[in-house]
Amino acid sequence: MLKGIGVSQGYGIGKAVIIGDISTDYSNVKYTDAESEKARLQNAVDSFIEETKKLASDIKEAVGEKEAEILEGHIVMLSDPFMISQMQENIDSGSIAEKAVDTVCNMFIDMFSSVDDELTNQRASDVKDIRDSLLKALLGVKSIDISTVPKNSVLVAKDFTPSMTSKINKNNVSAIITEVGGVTSHSAILARAMGIPAVLSVVNATEIIKDGMQIITDGFKGKVITCPSEIEIDKYTSLQNKYLKEKESLKEYIGKETVTADGIKKAVYANIGKPEDVQNVLQNSGEGIGLFRTEFLFMDRANEPTEEEQFEAYSTVARAMNGKEVIIRTLDIGGDKDIPYLHIEKEENPFLGHRAIRYCLDNPELFKKQIRAILRASVYGNIKIMLPLVTCLEEVKAAKELIKKCAEELNSEGTQFKNVPLGVMIETPAAVLISDLLAKEVDFFSIGTNDLTGYTMAVDRGNANVSNLYNTFQPAVMRAIEMTIKNAKKAGIQVGMCGEAAADARLIPNLIEWGLDEFSVTSGSILQTRKTICEYKQK
Ligand code: PEP
Ligand code: MG
Hints:
Bound molecules: phosphoenolpyruvate, magnesium ion
Number of strands: 16
């Protein structure tokens, strides 16, 4: 079995199609004359634009407007007269068309890669895509035509460029596997949008998996099974059938009010990591965002996002949610979430170390940028701020001070913002034990059972020897949850849960009885959670 990151849900069973690298070596191509080289270049550019336009229109229809924009951007880039004239100048100085394309594109790639900005870096990979397509057109080499792979193909590649992904025929592709990428990469975004199960970051996948090999892909757990047995195929076929059937039948819960069978109103919110995830939340009629894990904005990049970039992300989500609550959790890093450019010191016990709110309070410049961005975005919707890993009142008070300072700064700059409610995650036993005191300081709680289970049971969930203790149903964890909800109720503040347990049908009855108001789950679990709540009736 191979392990990767499950970025798009579902089970895919089928035959591997390896999308290998195509050689674009042009060392044997001879220069004829400038006129003919320019004509070859123009032909390649024309056919690239024509093909890309067709692809963009196909993808607009099959996937969506936003996804097609990536390809339309390629046309705009290549239509830049500067880029083409630079290539022509190279040809005038004696380069063959291939060399001219390579040189000029590489110049742009270097330029875009050297800037400390994610969007600009992304343009470097767009130019790489353009360069490779032009070279293939000039050399007349054809890559495997992804659009015509047979039914039940599992596509395996080092990575998928946007143009490769856009050629995928979702009716024929049962899964996608790559060697690089994570939840936020283009391939992941497109795979989710197309509803194709995907596992990324599978080390050496293109070497280990052979063309035609039978493959099972588990997009939930990030697992890839090569050459499965009949028993495994049967197991996953029935899991997939069950998953699809349930998914279909859950559609009746889209747009339905979340209210128990005896009339108690609840709300199902969603957890997101990036603004793009909102699309899925809305499709599944999430009633709010209960956890925006902002650390994802800081990951997979070479430097810290600016206040402006963060403002853009937060306001985009607020606007898209159109007045529904958006709970933005401040940066929760450290522990298992390393961000190399922040140079967090290596620690003996990172889960008990300088992480989350502790790190942010000790790095006020970084924290202030985030708070300012959130406050500025508040005018575009219904935003709330949530602090992770709180263990004492002092942390809340210090965060409040910092928020106040940011508000004063914005006021003096004449920048608009709203009064933003403040909440804390209850994910440490310390926070549970002082939840009565915390409730007097903040506007809401959200219970983080993922961490709360680990910290309460003193168990590292990665350690197989003690994994039986990592269990939310242990009485100690259940009591912690109950105590938190009761203290929130006593103080009259809202209490939600954003750990994975919020979607656990076995726990939901207890949570309703104790009075939990809001259940924040992954987008794919919204409808199932709503169904469980709607079917609940007090005995
Ligand atoms: C949690 O700990 O339950 C939680 C929701 O936070 P994260 O999983 O991001 O640590
Ligand atoms: Mg947590």
